[in-house]
Each structure stands twice: as structure tokens, then as C-alpha cells.
Amino acid sequence: MKNYDDDEIEIDLGELFYCLKSKIWIILLSGIIMASAAGLISSFMITPIYTSTTKLYILSKSTTLSSLADLQIGTQLTQDYMVLVKSRPVVTKVIENLGLNMSYEEMLKVITTSNPSNTRILSITADYPDPYLAKEIVDEFAKVSATQIAEIMNADKPTIVEEGYMQTNPSSPNTKKNTIIGGVVGVCVAAGIIILLHILDDTIKNSDDVEKYLGLTTLALIPIESGAAKLSKQDEKKRKKRKKSKKLKDMR
């Protein structure tokens, strides 16, 4: 007799494939349910956010572009300006000018600043549920920031390269993307659970399992289930015949 080691699990890829194939309807159903849930949540339960961006050019008109030192200074100033844009005087001034009922901390969550690499461009972006107000916020930040920067740095105002754009479609959530991700996650989770249950299932179902788990060779197979089914059908027919004959006797 062969010794079966419980710590080792042999995985038959072909068997796994046929197992997944037999449960394909469960996998597809799980994917459809998860995709629908993700799509509905994205459409009706998540507040849409609109994005607007304005851009400032750091180099002033008096700066000579032929000077490498001026270009390096412009790059360094961009980092300083990114900090100044989010300073309390600038943020509170924007809130006051627009008449918003927001705190300094709440406005900081709306605004983000960035500097594309190897440029003297400062981007100010607002993410807000109202597309019109998102544009108004970044435009006001550009104006107030330029004024504050000129006063603090004792230099010319940065040039506004691009004003904010009012989006008609929300930047988030991406319903189509979330729906696809939900469907993929549903399919993967269902397939993973089916594979795990199949691997952990060590019940003996056929002669191959007898040889695999017990190390014994089967000599013959007795179709107990099919035989029992046939016997039960025969018994049912006999009972029906008895009932029918009894009714005939009673009628006589």
C-alpha cells in the first residue's frame, strides 16, 4: 500500500480546467452581479467630481531667456510659488472673494498644485462637485496667487497661460472603468473560490480517488446509485398497479 502524505497536494491542471468549465455559469453570474453593483454604485452613490486647471508662467517679461541662470532661478521659484499658492493668506482671500462657506483646511483638499518636469509652468487644479465653481476657484487662485507672489517676492506678476476650463463630464468616478473592474473582480473571486473548494475536497468519488488517496487498486465497480434508482422506479410502478387494482375491486 502506498503512503499518502496529507501535507502534499497534487494539482491536476486538466481537472481544474474541467471543474471551472462545469461551473462557468457561476463564474459568469458572479462577474455580471459584481459589474452591475460597481456600475450602480458609481452612478448613484458616489458624488461626481469635476476638474478644472489653470496654468501660470513663472518667468517675468524682464527675464532674459538666453540666460541659463535665469532659467534655473525660474525653476527654483516655481517650487516656492507652489508653497505660496497654498499659504493661508492666499487661500482665505480666495474663499472671501468667492463668498464660499469653507474653511482653510477644506479648501486645501480641493486644490492641488504641480510643476511639469523641466518647465517653469505652475499648474493649479481644483476638484469640486460643481463644474462652474471648480473653474471659478482655479481662476481666482491664479489671480490672487499672482498678486500675492508679486508683493512677497518683489517681482513681476506671473503670467496666466491658461484659464480654468469648465468640464461637462465628471473626472470621477469613471463608471465604465469601475464596471469593468467590478466584473473582473467578480470573475476572479468566483473562480478562486471554486478552485479552493475543489483542492480542499478530499472526498472519494471514483476509482481514481481510491487509488490516489488509499493506494488501492479497484477490481470492479458496482453502480449502487443507478441500481437503487432503478429499484425505486420499479417499486413505484408496483405501488401504482396495486392502487389501481384496489380501486377496480372497490368499484366492483
Description of the structure:
- The chain has 252 residues and is α+β, with helices and mostly antiparallel strands.
- The chain has a domain at 50-162: 2-Layer Sandwich (Alpha-Beta Plaits), CATH 3.30.70.
- It has helices at 13-22, 24-44, 68-85, 88-98, 104-110, 131-153, 175-200, 207-214, 224-251, and strands spanning 50-57, 111-114, 121-128, 159-162.
- Strands 2-3-1-4 form a four-stranded antiparallel beta sheet.
- Strand 2 and strand 3 (121-128) form a beta hairpin.
- It starts with 12 loop residues before the first helix and ends with a helix.
User: How many strands, what sense, and barrel or not for the largest sheet?
Assistant: 4 strands, antiparallel
Lateral arrangement of strands in the main beta sheet: 2-3-1-4
Helical region count? 9
Using the 3D structure, state the CATH architecture of the domain at 50-162. 2-Layer Sandwich
Would you state the CATH class of the domain at 50-162? Answer: Alpha Beta
Distance between the termini: 68 Å
Taking pLDDT < 50 over at least 5 consecutive residues as the criterion, the unreliable ranges are 1-6, 64-68
The helical percent reads: 55-70%
Sheet/helix structural class: alpha+beta
What amount of the residues lies in strands? 5-15%
Shape: elongated
Overall average residue pLDDT:
79
Number of strands: 4
Order of helices and strands: HHEHHHEEHEHHH
How large is the radius of gyration? Answer: 37 Å
CATH topology of the domain at 50-162: Alpha-Beta Plaits
